[in-house]
Amino acid sequence: MSETDGTIPGLIPTPEKGYKSGYVTIMGKPNAGKSTFLNAILGTKLSIISPKVQTTRHRITGIHSDERGQIVFLDTPGFLEPRYGLHEKMMHAVRRSVEDADLILFILDPGDVPTEEDLAWFATYRKKPVLLMVNKSDRYDEAAVRRAAEQIEPLLAVRETRAISALKLDGLPELIDQIFGMLPEGPPFFPPDQLSEHPERFFVSELIREQLFYQYRAEIPYSCAVNIISFDVEPAITRIDAEIVVSRSSQKGIVIGKGGAALKKLGTEARKEIERFLDTKVYLNIFVKVREKWRDNETFLRSYGYNS
User: Fold this and answer.
1) In whole angstroms, what is the distance from residue 161 CA to residue 130 CA?
2) Is residue 93 within 8 Å of residue 308, measured between CB atoms?
3) All domains of the chain, ordered by start, with CATH?
4) 115 marked ligand binding residue
5) CA triplet 44, 110, 163: central angle to 5 degrees?
6) Is 35 annotated as a binding residue?
7) Containing H/E element for 182?
8) Looking at the record, which segments are called G2 (predicted)?
9) 97 among the known binding-site residues?
10) 221 labeled part of a ligand binding site
11) Does the annotation list 184 as a binding residue?
């Protein structure tokens, strides 16, 4: 038991009067900086990032707790026009997250402003207050930020607009203050030391998938899924077997590379990130498996964690 506050680590304490809690959904177009924003708020890497669009596929939960309350952030895939069953699942995750939210943070890249057609679906779900965060203020001047905001504010019925830089952490403390001011009073949903509701093996699979975006070009990263087959924690090392699922036999050869060089490089880089995340030595073994048209196969999608 803690000597300072009388609570047992891992349990949810009884909050003081005035304690705030709620769900805040982060949404926006692909590559607007949603995942960078979540990682910056939490001070740790939960959502994978890459220079390529549509890196995020799942709804990622990130939990910020302090003496004022608890904010449960929901990082969502960038909205898109579905081409596969996988895309339908991703967009359903966005819509469900909007419905679950107490507050919506719309992240905007001034260089890629959504059109009215892009946001037509949002009008149906726009029942919660919306804060517009014009991101990448370190890269655009004030005039560009203002023009981008003016284009989209009427489409979102924005409560307030802020310019931020998730990369440089500019404006984030003030934003957290504002969010707490808008959330209802209520108890925490999770223990105060918990950062996410996802298990470690989920983040391990995401870190492997992140390397697909960095190591391969064109369609390859978008055609792959990653599954953790075994996850064995030993005192001095964690042993992980994982499989990368591809859509076609020709893609398997590309992922493996000549003499296995490409897969070896991916495994080396992924292992470094996993060791940093788990804070332990890791043995990582990766296989490549072909599952044709898995992105349109409901059974495969569910087995790979796309249950929305």
Assistant:
1) 9
2) yes
3) 20-182 (3.40.50.300), 200-303 (3.30.300.20)
4) no
5) 60
6) yes
7) helix 172-182
8) 54-58
9) no
10) no
11) no
| Token pair listed for 100 | 């679950």
pLDDT tens, position by position, for the chain (308 residues)?
333 444 445 566 666 789 999 999 999 998 999 999 999 999 999 999 988 888 999 999 999 999 999 999 999 998 888 899 999 999 888 888 988 899 999 999 999 999 888 888 877 767 789 999 999 999 999 999 999 999 999 988 899 999 999 999 999 999 999 999 999 999 999 999 999 999 999 999 999 999 999 999 889 999 999 999 999 999 999 999 999 999 999 999 999 999 999 999 999 999 999 999 999 999 999 999 999 999 999 999 999 888 76
The answer on whether 277 is annotated among ligand-binding residues is no
Q: Is 33 marked as a binding-site residue?
A: yes
Structure tokens at 188: 């925490």
Residues in CB range of 174: below 8 A, 6 or more apart: 162
287 in a labelled binding site: no
Q: Has 171 been labeled as part of a binding site?
A: no
Strand 160-163 and strand 103-108: pairing?
A: unpaired
Sort strands 103-108 and 20-27 into parallel, antiparallel or unpaired: parallel
Among 73, 31, 60, residue whose Cα is nearest residue 305: 60
Say if residues 170 and 164 touch (Cβ distance below 8 Å). Answer: yes
CB contact at 8 A, 32 and 109: yes
Integer Cα distance of 227 and 53 in angstroms: 21
Residue 247 assigned to a binding site = no
Report whether 69 belongs to an annotated binding site: no
Q: Is 77 annotated as a binding residue?
A: yes
At 219, phi and psi to the nearest 5? Answer: -80, -20
pTM as predicted: 0.90
Q: Is 30 annotated as a binding residue?
A: yes
Q: What share of the chain is helix, strand, coil (3-state, %, to 5)?
A: 35, 20, 40
Angle of helix 261-278 relative to helix 249-256, nearest 10 degrees? 70
